[in-house]
Description:
By secondary structure, the protein is α/β, with parallel strands linked by helices. Helix content is 33%, strand content 23%. The chain is built from six helices and nine strands. The protein has helices at 15-26, 44-51, 67-80, 97-102, 123-130, 165-188, and strands spanning 4-10, 31-38, 56-58, 85-88, 107-111, 134-141, 151-158, 192-195, 198-201. The strands form two sheets. It has a seven-stranded mixed beta sheet, with helices on both faces. Strands 8-9 form a two-stranded antiparallel ribbon. 36% of the residues are buried. The structure holds glycinamide ribonucleotide. The site of glycinamide ribonucleotide has 15 residues, from α1, β5 and α6.
Amino acid sequence: MAKVKIGVLISGSGSNLQAIIDRIEAGTLDAEIAVVISNEPEAYGLTRAEKHGLPALVVNHRDFPGREAFDLRLVEVLRAHGVELVVLAGFMRLITRTLLEAFPHRVMNIHPALLPAFPGVHVWGKVVDYGVKFSGCTVHFVDEGADTGPIIIQAVVPVLDDDDAETLAARILKQEHRIYPRAIQLFAEGRLKVEGRRVRVLPLDRSQDEAALANPRLED
Ligand code: GAR
């Protein structure tokens, strides 16, 4: 299977980036990280990228007069690296039409709550304070709103009585590391079809496989 070239945008720790790297290195994600970009010069995710020999660079939003100019530079860098899919992984900047028009239906984001509940930032404490019994995480295509784009995959976790923001965030993060690589793999397999707000997951196309049988049967 052809590998999809991804550009990963980060602002911080980069544990989702690490999960993606690990899946690629394990051979279970048909992607190649063409570039990692951080808007924060001190982001630990940059070190993770470097440890794995990945091209990593800083595009600091503070160096630009506004969001459009910042996004124009991002588009330039992403294009220069041949990126086909933009993966926002803890990227704490709102992106503009400039980036979205350059990569239509090709920008994904992960959010640490069950959208459309609890959009925005620092949501774990809000989830605990509200008293909901379940939360989770969502991978979605990005549109012009904040955390409003079509949903690709979600995972649910319980909110426990003695949770605080930190314990809940840790429980959710484990699931983020499972669903983000999965969403990217579905994209790589050409199986995500956006129909308005809904993202349909097409069945795996086996038409190119050889019609071979094995006995005893092989495990998929
Ligand atoms: C993750 O929990 C991600 O869902 C969240 O930031 C964290 C980044 O962690 N993203 C947002 O809140 C986006 N609004 P990481 O840097 O370890 O991947």
